[in-house]
Amino acid sequence: MTFLFTLLSFAVALLLSIMGTLVYSQVKHVAPNLAFAYRHIAFPFAIAVGAIVLVLLVLLEVRNYRQRKTLAGIERVS
């Protein structure tokens, strides 16, 4: 799940950064530097999103584990 969100965020960030780079190059009348869009925008963004998603999914799994453990304890007592 983390890998899929990271890959999806990379694809979206790369698309938007390439479009932004093309617009910037048209406005400034310079050659577009698409490697910049990949290296300095999309890749760091994808790494950050991947780390955030990983932490959120770990927290979600811990919460689910504790909830199942509590419910199993309640079921045993009943």
What does this structure look like?
This protein is mainly alpha-helical. The protein has one domain. 91% of the residues lie in helices and 0% in strands. The protein has 2 helices and no strands. Helix 1 (2-28) runs antiparallel to helix 2 (34-77). The longest helix is centred in the last third of the chain and has 44 residues, at 34-77. The protein is rod-shaped, with a radius of gyration of 21 Å. The relative contact order is 0.14.
Give the SSE layout.
Layout: H1 2-28, H2 34-77
Features:
single chain, 78 residues, mainly alpha, 2 helices
Helix residue percentage: over 70%
Radius of gyration: 21 Å
How many beta strands in the DSSP annotation? 0
Low-pLDDT regions = none
Kindly name the structural category.
mainly alpha
How many domains?
1
Q: What percent of residues are in strands?
A: under 5%
- Please report the distance between the alpha carbons of the first and last residues: 36 Å
The total of helices stands at: 2
**Main beta sheet, described?**
none
Shape: rod-shaped
Q: Which H/E pattern describes the elements? A: HH
Summarize model confidence as the mean pLDDT. 94
